[in-house]
């Protein structure tokens, strides 16, 4: 197996993320296993396990569910595998091996694997790449296989993945007698890179590069496929067209993030992987353009992306409505994937800043505190009656759902959170990067030996972070690179109680020392409450403010402030108190300030309009909770942006 020069292994014992990773392990993994087996009362059936049993010839029946149903099982297996790395579980490991054997028994002699076509007719495979998700399902299965092998050492699913990738490699490419197609929904590109890095097989990297470079090349593959099938593109008559799939023009000619948001960031993530491994400067430039387009002009303050219900897509610069927003949970997860890969291209704090913003807000809001209900759409403003009665807002739900027929988000959440340590820490040569502050034990395997740390913090509630060296086998100096978040205006750092004078570079504080066991590094990141304003071209947020503390976006919720949140106002210079409440929403820091509420005095007769009079305001105590925790106390209104 190919080995990286440096790597960090982490055992997370973190008050904030540790509890959520535990929720994944103890609640989400068992719950989703029941869902995949259609055993959740009053929830949409998955049919997933049943489809594999039918494809393997173990029972009779028809394929049911979406064409991409296989991917739900693959994502669940990936998440479950990651939990085994830190918490061995013999029963779960045996279940995973049984599922891997079931998948292997459904795989075809040439390596092909997709239950929809195995059940409905293999003669139709690879005939509808645009819409039928075969390559998407293959990508998730490969991701699951790499994680399963890493966690258990088993090769059962890894053999499936290699045979599947070999099947793809025989069928796709620029060579004669191969299809010049590519995935309609990207993810296979990232997966092939992971398989290449896990096995050392360069053919898989070459295929990933082919898929990235071939997209949108003339003649357009999806146009020819549609003509052959007599099947029009659903998006043909609207503003998206084939850019819905990132397939209307070559990637290097694309200037802005377009199309389906999840497909887009999955595509850009794969492109960043290929750009890094081939040192392709033009592809790197494309990735930077897409990053700037998203994060500077098309991203919500929560890290949500994809503002339109139509196509779950990007629209145009600064179009960020709060109440008709889409902001799919999977899109925020994909933005985290993209950020991680941009960090691999170049160490710039802005990438980790966005990764953190999305994780703490747009990703985490997608699951309930108990990990058993989920949001597909993540709004920034909700009036429950509008969700029920206004067709423009029917996609917005005021409460999380037990499961979905299209259940891409719940297992995607599980696999991301279960693998979170690999997003927090990274090693390159003799440098250890701390991108996110997660408490726990870290072991960095560097080219010259090991160095271990204990990181302790109560982030994001408290400002203090402490790293203690617990072991060092490296004789030469080692660099620790600590991210100074973009939201942090001032900080203090010491090593063994002595102030350090190094200045951050591109968002990271680089400390190079010959570290000794017992050395202690302390970092304090100031976390004042801030009122944030949007660029004036964001029409929906004119005259409004959002409240943040550290990486967390806050919101008003009806449970604390009563109905009619649109009538509440912040003062011009609100004075906040921050108080940690252990019994509230699993333990959160609540922000309170004195505000105003627009009075309805004089409107008692119910008239709709009247000549202008001076508006009357009453003092009103405002209480803000972290955005990720809303909708855990019943149905009610919610708003992130507040009038000032």
What does this structure look like?
The protein has 644 residues and is of the alpha+beta class. Helices cover 35% and strands 18% of the residues. It contains 18 helices and 21 strands. 50% of the residues are buried.
Topology:
Layout: E1 7-12, H1 17-36, H2 48-55, H3 70-86, H4 90-106, H5 115-120, H6 134-152, H7 156-171, H8 188-199, H9 202-214, H10 221-229, H11 261-278, H12 281-297, H13 329-345, H14 349-363, E2 381-382, H15 384-389, H16 409-418, H17 421-424, E3 425-428, E4 431-434, E5 440-446, E6 449-457, E7 464-472, E8 478-483, E9 491-495, E10 498-499, E11 508-513, E12 520-525, E13 529-532, E14 544-549, E15 552-557, H18 558-561, E16 568-569, E17 577-581, E18 588-598, E19 617-626, E20 638-639, E21 642-643
Parallel strand pairs: 4-8
Antiparallel strand pairs: 1-5, 2-20, 3-4, 5-6, 6-7, 7-12, 8-11, 9-10, 9-12, 13-14, 14-15, 14-21, 15-19, 15-20, 16-18, 17-18, 18-19
